[in-house]
């Protein structure tokens, strides 16, 4: 009763907001105020994760944060710092596991021309749960060296391969795309990535005549992306290759400052920037909020608010291109707050 009254009073969509570490709080603040100017449909439930959560409750992924995402099934997340080597396991990986966010969707679209290429428009879809990231890692001792040998066993399942590849084809259908390129290394990792290629060939048959299909070996694909990105449309690949190639593609459109991503599963979706917490510039007020803002645009699309997503992307385009207001990573001199104000005035 109370719930239905609450629903009728507001059309807001509840969503978890994680400010994150390093530059996270600065860019999240910027994105939230630009969304507010746009008439944000989201009702934020702010929660902590990463170092910020360690400092507060001694746990990088507190129960409350998990419960909030379980409840809302939707989140916008600032970057989280992961200690290298020792320390705690990546919270990003834990979140993907907890909510079975099997698809990592990373669109790369040229926003600011004048880079090496003018019209890049590639969406990379990365398998987000398996491969080498399943990480059965261990050391074997020899003599008195406890770390004499390092081993890592990855796996891919037929079900997991089918699920992500089907997702890529459906994404292509829904977004007016023409071609899916499957990227693998089945000539060397014959089982681990051979199963992925096999699944791709099977599923491609179902879409014959609607979506074209091709396969590429990952090293050749990396070279072709750098020489001629125009030949790619939608790319689907395994976890580790997807991690590497999506940063490469971000480089083609001017760097990490413009690369958004969505982690999508049946139970929840978490949107974030591809970049990390940028400790080198944290607190300086010069972080570029646009990657996270473009992730918020993906989140608007995800909940069916495509009109708002389009207005947001247009404001970003006009502010950076026509007004020439950019943060230092994109060759400008604007501070995060100046860019934010400029975006708000273009939305209003
Ligand atoms: P990074 O992406 O944080 O930084 C790489 C370089 O790009 C730095 O020079 C940084 O200043 C610059 N940069 C990144 N985002 C920027 C922005 N919005 N505006 C302006 N410049 C920006 O990668 P790095 O240094 O390897 O990782 C730092 C931390 O972030 C690590 O703890 C890592 O584990 C974590 N990380 C977290 C991710 C996530 O939460 N999804 C993703 C990647 C890394
Ligand atoms: Mg990465």
Automatic annotation (TrEMBL):
Q: Where is the Isopropylmalate dehydrogenase-like domain?
A: 12-343
Tell me which Pfam families the record gives: Iso_dh (PF00180)
- Keywords, alphabetical: Oxidoreductase
Q: Which InterPro entries match?
A: IsoCit/isopropylmalate_DH_CS, IsoPropMal-DH-like_dom
Q: Which GO terms describe its biological process?
A: isocitrate metabolic process; tricarboxylic acid cycle
For this protein, the Enzyme Commission number is 1.1.1.42
Please state what class of enzyme this protein is.
oxidoreductase
PROSITE patterns, sorted: IDH_IMDH
Is this entry keyworded Oxidoreductase? yes
Can you name one GO molecular function term for this protein?
Answer: NAD binding
Q: Does the keyword Transmembrane apply?
A: no
Superkingdom to which the source organism belongs: Bacteria
Which protein family is it in?
Belongs to the isocitrate and isopropylmalate dehydrogenases family.
Q: State the name under which the record lists this protein.
A: Isocitrate dehydrogenase [NADP]
Q: Which organism is it from?
A: Granulibacter bethesdensis (strain ATCC BAA-1260 / CGDNIH1)
Q: What is the lineage of its organism?
A: Bacteria, Pseudomonadati, Pseudomonadota, Alphaproteobacteria, Acetobacterales
